[in-house]
Every structure is written in structure tokens, then in C-alpha cells.
Amino acid sequence: MTGDSKMRFLSVVVLAVFQSSLPSLLIAQERDTRPIDAIVVQYLSSGYAAADVVIDPNELVRDSSTRLTPRRNRSRAQAIAAALGTRTGERADVIKCGGHPRLCRLIGTGMHLQFSVPEILDSTATIVVLQHFATGEVRMPMAYRRQRLFLKRENGEWIVERQEIQVLS
Predict the structure, then answer these.
(1) Beta-strand relationship, 111-115 and 53-55
(2) Are 169 and 143 a contacting pair, CB within 8 Å?
(3) Which helix (H) or strand (E) holds 42?
(4) Each residue of 140-158: pLDDT tens digit?
(5) Model-level pTM?
(6) Contact status, residue 147 vs residue 163, Cβ threshold 8 Å
(7) pLDDT tens-digit readout, 46-82
């Protein structure tokens, strides 16, 4: 075997081993997210008055740097809004800011929610919900938090296993 053929053979072996060891991670755009969305809506709905919530039509997707960036998916947002008994609306339409970020306030709603695309790995999934909500405080009328929900599939059903909440402002 020449040096080139040894290198090609080694590359094929490494690629085969690598592919066989990849977990079945799927970004939800390749799968039906409705069962996950339904359990997330059920989990979240107990904490929000539907009339006070606006769902952003832009879902969040991980980009190559692992940051969450918006991508329009109006049909998914409308389905989530309908399940919560509320409406959809762009962030720019419901959040107005004066000269300083601490002066931002919600207009016409008490909460703005934006959902990520679920990341599914075998029988587990994670979904991030970004929340802008009214605080009732004069010095900081709106706050922002990120809620990450960890789900698992048990007996064919998705359930919320745990959550992490990070208050960002």
C-alpha cells in the first residue's frame, strides 16, 4: 500500500467509526415538534394569564457559534399561541425602549415569549424560552429571563424533567 492509499484507507476507517459513534441528535426542524410544544405549553400555561402573553413568531435556532439566533416560523408560533389562548407579535411591536435598556417597557402585554427549536437527543430534549415580563417597578419596568426546560420521553410521552431559570436583567 502506498502512502496515499494508506491515508485514504485510514480516512475511511476514521469516518466510519466517527459516524457510528454519533448520537442521534436532531434539531427539531427535521422532526415533528408538536408533541414537545404541547407539553411545554401545558407546563408554561399554569404560570401565565393568556390575555397578558404575546408569542414571538421568530423561533430561536442555534447557529454555528452555538448562540440562539431568530428564524421566522409563524405557523409554529401561531400553534403555540392558539394552545395558550393568546396571540403572536413581534418583539419590536411590544417592547419599547427609552435611551437606556433599563427603561424598556412592554406595551399592550404583560409578557413576551420566544421559543427555541427543541434539540432532541434520543429520548431527551431541551427547549429554551426567552421571557420579557413587566415588573411593576418604576426604575426597571421590564425584566428578562431565560428558561431552559429539560424533557424526557417516558412510555412514549414527553414530560418536563427539570428546568433552569437565568434572570438576565
Answers:
(1) parallel
(2) yes
(3) helix 34-45
(4) 889 989 999 999 999 989 9
(5) 0.73
(6) yes
(7) 666 666 889 998 887 877 666 777 777 888 888 888 8
